[in-house]
Amino acid sequence: MTTILKIDSSGQYEGSVSRKLTGRLAQRLLAQPNVTLIERDVAKGLPVVSESWIGSNFTPKDDRSAAQAEILALSDSLVEELRQADTLIIGMPIYNFSMPAALKNWIDLICRAGETFRYSETGPEGLLTGKKAYIVVASGGVPLGSPADFASTYLTQVLNFIGITDISFIAATAMMADAETVIKAAEAKIDGISLLAAA
């Protein structure tokens, strides 16, 4: 059984390019046998990390109060979704040269020492190895990998940090120039993904 975790972060629903492409990619991968899909729409709202969250997170698990466990409950659920997933699909529009705040909130809630990474004698070590990630990037004016793209490099760093190093980008960026051509190219890239390679 293969599990896909699809994460959408666009604040737009009707007409969202990133949502359209993550949906297309999910359907492509679901064409394989024995595949299940977990969907997480972070744009619907995630809490920001607070003083009480930080205090709860850094309290040893066996010493946490019921209130602290409740504070971490959502974060625990998000981490468990990541653990279950064999493949990630992350939809990331670029807002003002970076990612949506909702996606950054998700990152802050899943980057937890002892859960998704640990510190060793040689430095940080990611604990979520052996996973594949597809990052679907959409933007009006910022090309993927350009000097103004602070989103893709940051998300790559975060995923690498927690152990996910097999990353592929599907870009529908700089759409202000020619949206139709850009979107068609992204769709073609999705449709050309080898299902055996993706399994």
Task: Write up what this structure looks like.
The protein is α/β, with parallel strands linked by helices and 199 residues long. The protein has a single domain, classed as Rossmann fold, CATH 3.40.50. It has helices at residues 17-30, 51-57, 66-71, 73-84, 101-110, 151-161, 175-191, 195-198; strands at 2-8, 35-41, 87-93, 117-120, 123-126, 132-138, 166-172. The strands form two sheets. A five-stranded parallel beta sheet has the order 2-1-3-6-7, with helices on both faces. Strands 4-5 form a two-stranded antiparallel sheet. β4 (117-120) and β5 (123-126) form a beta hairpin. α1 (17-30) runs parallel beside α7. The radius of gyration is 17 Å and the shape is globular.
Helix and strand topology:
Blueprint (H helix, E strand, L loop, with lengths): L1 E7 L8 H14 L4 E7 L9 H7 L8 H6 L1 H12 L2 E7 L7 H10 L6 E4 L2 E4 L5 E7 L12 H11 L4 E7 L2 H17 L3 H4 L1
Parallel strand pairs: 1-2, 1-3, 3-6, 6-7
Antiparallel strand pairs: 4-5
